[in-house]
């Protein structure tokens, strides 16, 4: 009974963690719906209060309960009875499920609960960036800059919220590339509270700098290459291969997850985007022909494809390591 009782208690604990993660994530998902709708349009996140976009009816508290309100209202506004998009409850449910998985991972890995702060913020930021980039083709500074700032604040306030400081040798925590420097700073002859924060800050800033430099190089080199191709072929090509928004998104990723994640997630996002681009060009929409093949490469946003491996990282760890593990000696 002892072993069974322990297993039952562990199962209940994980169930509570999962439920709390989903509940909190659904609330955050409701806010992200506001971010995705208002930020690209230059609107305030605070004023005016939430209203029906079709009749202007003010959304009351009981009508704003994540997921449930949409179900109880039959997917329609309570005043004008016009349909409310399914994207709202879907976004809330997706964020809830993601936060639930992140909370389970933190609990199973035995990481400090403060780890949830940066990982929840990063997961929410990536979801909103992917949705905004897909719908509007922009990556707002409000999301990327606030993400970088929050990563630095968490680093200074809760240095052990970075798993690389808890176990720098674990490949799932993004600290392999900066391990020696971080450990040297952590072991410096300084007060422990200071050395830990400095080591955590080094890990954060190194990831941010690497993310910025990698895509900034692609931005400038890609722009030069496209200009040369346009002159040579006489065709109208995009002016840049990647925008500055993508550069800042990768810098934000490095600030949260470290230098290892920057390299692996950039490769994963690029590969996924390339595969989708090839499929889009190979199977254009009916009636568009060659023009669709050209547009397929111009119109594909990067953030949605980058978000897939990035979110997988915070849920399951270094997925690249899992992929190559069977081939390691």
Description:
The protein is built from 13 helices and no strands. The protein has helices spanning 2-38, 68-72, 87-109, 116-136, 141-157, 163-166, 179-186, 192-233, 244-257, 259-282, 289-299, 303-316, 319-324. The two termini are 41 Å apart.
Q: Show unreliable segments.
A: 1-8, 290-297
Strand content: under 5%
Helix and strand content put the structural class at: mainly alpha
Q: What does the main sheet amount to?
A: none
Summarize the helix and strand pattern as letters: HHHHHHHHHHHHH
- Compute the number of helices: 13
Distance between the termini: 41 Å
Task: Assign an overall shape.
Answer: globular
Extended strand count: 0
Helix residue percentage:
55-70%
Using only CA atoms, what is the Rg? 22 Å
Keywords:
329 residues; globular; mainly alpha
Compile the SSE list and pairings.
Blueprint: H1 2-38, H2 68-72, H3 87-109, H4 116-136, H5 141-157, H6 163-166, H7 179-186, H8 192-233, H9 244-257, H10 259-282, H11 289-299, H12 303-316, H13 319-324
Helix pairs in contact: 1-3, 1-4, 3-4, 3-12, 4-5, 4-9, 4-12, 5-8, 5-9, 7-8, 8-9, 8-10, 9-10, 10-11, 10-12
């Amino acid at each position: 009974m002892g072993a069974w009782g322990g297993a039952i208690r562990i199962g209940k604990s994980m169930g509570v963690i999962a439920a709390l993660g989903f509940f909190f994530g659904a609330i955050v998902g409701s806010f992200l719906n506001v971010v995705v709708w208002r930020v690209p349009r230059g609107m305030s996140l605070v004023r005016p209060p939430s209203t029906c976009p079709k009749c202007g009816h003010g959304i009351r508290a009981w009508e704003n309960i994540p997921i449930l309100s949409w179900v109880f209202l039959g997917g329609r506004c309570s005043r004008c009875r016009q349909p409310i998009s399914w994207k709202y409850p879907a976004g809330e449910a997706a964020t809830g499920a993601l936060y639930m998985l992140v909370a389970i991972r933190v609990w199973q890995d035995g990481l400090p609960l403060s780890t949830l702060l940066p990982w929840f913020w990063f997961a929410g930021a990536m979801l909103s960036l992917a949705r905004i980039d897909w719908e509007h083709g922009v990556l707002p500074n409000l999301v990327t800059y606030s993400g970088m700032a929050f990563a630095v604040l968490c680093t200074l306030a809760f240095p052990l919220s970075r798993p690389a400081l808890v176990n720098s040798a674990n490949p799932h925590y993004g600290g392999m590339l900066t391990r020696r420097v971080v450990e040297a700073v952590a072991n410096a002859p300084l007060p422990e509270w200071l050395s830990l924060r400095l080591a955590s800050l080094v890990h954060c800033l190194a990831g941010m700098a690497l993310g910025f430099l990698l895509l900034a190089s692609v931005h400038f080199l890609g722009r030069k290459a496209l200009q040369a191709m346009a002159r040579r072929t006489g065709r109208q090509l995009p002016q840049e291969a990647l925008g500055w928004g993508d550069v800042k998104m990768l810098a934000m990723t490095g600030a949260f997850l470290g230098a290892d994640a920057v390299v692996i997630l950039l490769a994963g996002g690029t590969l996924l985007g390339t595969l989708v681009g090839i499929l889009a060009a190979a199977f254009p929409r009916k009636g568009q022909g060659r023009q669709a093949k050209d547009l397929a490469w111009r119109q594909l946003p990067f953030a949605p494809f980058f978000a897939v491996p990035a979110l997988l990282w915070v849920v399951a760890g270094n997925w690249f390591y899992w992929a190559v593990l069977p081939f390691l000696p």
